[in-house]
């Protein structure tokens, strides 16, 4: 199921996470219509979507983060896959205020991206958390997947380019180390000489994307097959 979620300025981080949790519950409630086993739902996402997938997977049935209308339902999942995802929103919020992606700078120079149409990271940060992350550290940690690492987390596949200039590979490495400390089955696939969003252009011709797809297919095969990890 391809899940869309609202973005700023329409909603904040809590609203984005709520959209993902609503999608999990909807799929479970409609599982019989699509021949889906509701006990074998796996969340996947990339970049911001990866952060939301991890966060939703690591906070099932949470009294604070589950929307009120789904709290009677089960929001747990069998596993989660995250590609080049930020995992610590407090450290990610320390990016320089003028740190714009190169395509945005180019777009402004040639006139196809107007100022005001692309928010800077500090502007996005304030709309996500209500203030800069450093000013509301408790809220930033609440929405950081790494803050929810624990033995109850589902099996996890993390994929990240070693030379990612948007989300540091250290985010996935630290997430992997935290999961391993808690004994959570996890795999961290670091792809050498690879930048952010490596799987978007020319998927069939991209060697890194094909390598990542190989790992994803096998992880999904384990998650959707007979459980090797108890009831999860």
Could you characterize what this model shows?
By secondary structure, the chain is an alpha/beta fold. The chain folds into two domains: 13-88 and 144-224, Rossmann fold; 92-143, no CATH class. It contains nine helices and four strands. It has helices at residues 13-29, 31-34, 48-58, 89-92, 102-110, 121-129, 137-142, 169-181, 207-224, and strands at residues 42-46, 79-83, 156-161, 186-191. A four-stranded parallel sheet has the order 1-2-3-4, sandwiched between helices. Helix 3 (48-58) links the parallel strand 1 (42-46) and strand 2. The two termini are 20 Å apart. 33% of the residues are buried.
Helix and strand arrangement:
Layout: H1 13-29, H2 31-34, E1 42-46, H3 48-58, E2 79-83, H4 89-92, H5 102-110, H6 121-129, H7 137-142, E3 156-161, H8 169-181, E4 186-191, H9 207-224
Helix pairs in contact: 1-3
